[in-house]
Amino acid sequence: MSAALPSFDDIRDAAARIAPHATLTPVMRSDALDAMVGAQLHFKCENLQRGGAFKFRGACNAVWSLTDEEAARGVVTHSSGNHGNALAIAAATRGIAAHVVVPEGAVRAKLDAIEQAGAILHRCAPTIAAREAKAAEIQHATGAVMVHPYADTRVMAGQGTAVLELMQQCEGLDALMTPIGGGGLSAGCSIAAHGIRPTLAIYGAEPEGAADAALSLVHGARIDPFTPHTICDGLRALIGESNLDALRTHHVDIITVSDEETITAMRQLWQALKLVVEVSSATVFAAVLKQREHFAGKRLGLVLTGGNVDLDALPW
Amino acid sequence: MSAALPSFDDIRDAAARIAPHATLTPVMRSDALDAMVGAQLHFKCENLQRGGAFKFRGACNAVWSLTDEEAARGVVTHSSGNHGNALAIAAATRGIAAHVVVPEGAVRAKLDAIEQAGAILHRCAPTIAAREAKAAEIQHATGAVMVHPYADTRVMAGQGTAVLELMQQCEGLDALMTPIGGGGLSAGCSIAAHGIRPTLAIYGAEPEGAADAALSLVHGARIDPFTPHTICDGLRALIGESNLDALRTHHVDIITVSDEETITAMRQLWQALKLVVEVSSATVFAAVLKQREHFAGKRLGLVLTGGNVDLDALPW
């Protein structure tokens, strides 16, 4: 599960490719949150992206990178979360088929959203092996192109466009932070950020119970297997091989946060920004709060990754 | 409790006056919500205004309309809700004192916010008479200028700037809708809208349990006393005298909605727009949903009035 890292040019190409389809998301600020940290925080609101998450960027870039011949056979992925939904919406923008493999027991509301976007659902047993086998079976039967959630060059390039935009929207940032799950966003954003300003400080936020990227950096190699335990459902994926390389190359400094810290941060974000952001997104603000002496006086860009929340089960 | 209605020029002056202090709030859209209604909905996001509500516009215009001599004596109001908070923040932008009379039993979090903004709290018994008496006492003792939440020309002019902005941000609207409480927003917005386009259709949304404006229009005169019963805490005020005149003059068509319809609409707004909006704000979407045949195919501007929500007590 490795994929070549995109170049800065790949990210610029991705930005042009997705521009007709993606939302230019706003950057929001809050005096109250700035005061809590003693820094200037610039929140890139990917919860306002199509499909409610940054994932649309990568999926859309992948879909529109295909030749007409490839596209005609459709795309396939195994993700019941934001990536599955994003790929369904992206495929619809090109009028092609999207196959999404979902494990038994996935949240009904998420599956409804994926189906509503026009994708074909394929059920399988709730194991990684079953999901991969099912996806391979569909690839074989239909010729559909696999679009992996993060170990995919096109996907990483697409995710990087979030920071390309952010750095155009607010100049003079001192530092940048994204959450770290599989590492598609953090890899793409690191490459984008250093393509623009090679000296920018880059941080990642990771839940303590899913800190495989932080551990892998210390350990010097990817830790696998690893069983994550965190409320941050968007950050349970293990860091990809080349994604880890990108973190190393770009000197990404990882700050780990407890779920309790993240939930507190999530509530503070809702209260101050008046935005619905999902728990995984709140790790970045939790990390800044935790290390506030370190960030004091800085201009910080933070990516709020998504807003797909079960409003009947808020974590506080 | 009557006040002269502002002119269109008053509203334009207010826009210039508050520009250095107020947020130019975004207009948001959602394909999902458009599809539910079969219309094009443009949401003016006043939940993203300073203090989390449109109320800052009116309070800020009032504060900056004062002569230096008046300003030196401060301002006073009786409101434990968004207006009290807005006046506190507005007074701080001019560095003057704000006195806010609050009834015993008001929500602690709201009082904390008002104090944090720098205002002086004055407690009184939880009756209208006690609040007015206390405010009069403070006026007498300090010379502070009373800034009524809605029966105030400067406040109405300030609220009207929300629609001035909205109509600059999206051209070609067919209709406009705001919630109706005391009528500061609906009066100001009606005057602003018809100043720009005299034929624009204007609607108001009112909770069934606080439909004193709708009843007053039918009855031909202001109904008072009237005891409101609604979950929409921002819409319990009775319509002001001149505010009612404005609704009549501008042929504002009122649609009443049940609290149940409003709560459903609130949840749908959160889900689709990823925005935290308060229950009073959701009346406008509830009204559009209820009358969807009437609005089919139209371009509609809706004011989302605020985002100050108790996140521990969501109504669904």
Record the SSE blueprint:
Two copies of one chain form a homodimer.
Chain A: H1 8-18, E1 27-28, H2 31-37, E2 40-45, H3 55-65, H4 68-72, E3 75-78, H5 82-94, E4 98-103, H6 108-116, E5 120-124, H7 128-142, E6 145-146, H8 153-169, E7 175-179, H9 184-196, E8 201-207, H10 212-219, H11 241-249, E9 253-257, H12 259-273, H13 283-290, H14 292-295, E10 299-304
Parallel strand pairs in A: 2-10, 3-4, 3-6, 4-5, 7-8, 7-10, 8-9
Antiparallel strand pairs in A: 1-2
Helix pairs in contact in A: 1-3, 1-8, 3-5, 3-8, 5-6, 8-9, 9-11, 12-13
Poorly predicted runs of 5 or more residues of chain A? none
Please report the total strand number of chain A as a whole number: 10
Structure annotation, total helices of chain A: 14
Main sheet attributes: strand count, strand direction, barrel closure of chain A: 6 strands, mixed
Strand order of the largest sheet of chain A: 1-2-10-7-8-9
Element string of chain A (H = helix, E = strand): HEHEHHEHEHEHEHEHEHHEHHHE
